[in-house]
Amino acid sequence: MKILNHQLTKLTGHGGAIHCVQYSSGLGQYILTGSSDRSIRLYNPSKASASTPGSGLVQTYSAHGYEVLDISVTGDNARFASVGGDKQVFLWDVATGRTLRRWSGHFGRVNCVGFGGEEGSVVVSGSFDATVRLWDCKSQSTKPIQVFEDSKDSVSSLDVLGHEIVTGSVDGKMRLYDLRMGMVYVDTIGHPITSVQQTTDGNAVLVSTLDSTIRLMDKSNGQMLQNYKGHTNTDFRIRSCLGLADSIVISGSEDGKIYVWDLLEGKVIEGVTAHDGKIASAVSCCSPRKEWASAGTDGTVFVWGMTQ
Fold this sequence. Notes:
about 300 residues, four-stranded antiparallel sheet, mainly beta, about 50% strand, single chain
C-alpha cells in the first residue's frame, strides 16, 4: 500500500498555533487554516514553495478578536463558517472576504462548527457552554432555530451528515441527534472526546479521546469496531480524520508526529515526524488529490502526498 508520507510543500505565515485545517470542497484545490493569531488564511498549496515564506497565500480573513478554533466550508465553496474564542459564529463570503452574518448566543468559546440542511442553509455550532446551536442562514433572525442542552460539559467536536448531527463532549459521551425523528442517542466512550467524524456511508463514527486512543464506533448499536493507538493525546484537543475512501485513519500527536493507521486492521502503517516536535493539532485529507495536510502549534501546515 502506498503511503501518503511524501512532503509536497509547507504553508507558513500564521503568527501562532494553528487549531484547524480544512480542504475546500470538491477537488480540494485550496486549504483554509484558523489560528490563535485570530486570522483565517486561504492557501493554494500548488502555488506554495516550502523555501518561500508565506507563498501560496490567496487571502487572509480578519474579523475574529480571539483565537479561531474551527472552520467549515459549504459544498459549493462560496461560503465558510468559523468559530473561536469570540463566543460568536461567523459566516463568510469566500470571494469578497466579508462576513455575511455573525450570530451571538453562546456563553463560552465556540469549539466546533459544521454546515447542514440543503445547500448549507443551516450552521451548527458546539461550545464550551455545553450547548449545540443551529442557525438559519436564510433567515435574518439572530436567534438560533434550535438549541441542544444535553451535554454535561464542553462540546468539543461535531460532524453533520444528512439529517444527523454527531457531537463529542468532554463529558466522555458521543451524542447522535436524528433531526428527522427528533431523537437523541447517547454512547458513553468514557474519556473526554476531542474529535468525531462520520464515515462516508454514515454507518460508523471515528472518535478521538484523551486516553491516547481513537475508536471506530458502530452508529447502530454503539459497539467498538476497531481502535487505533500509538500516538500521544492526553492533554490537548487533537483532531483525527478518515482518508482515501475511508481506508485509513490519520491523526496528529502531542509528540509532533502524524500517524496513519489501516482502518480495518488497526495497525500503524506510517509515522511521520513534522512540526519541530510541537503538537500536531489537526489533520485534513483530500481524497481526490490523494493528499493530506497537518497543522501544528508551530504555526505551519505541511502538505503530504503519495510516495512516488
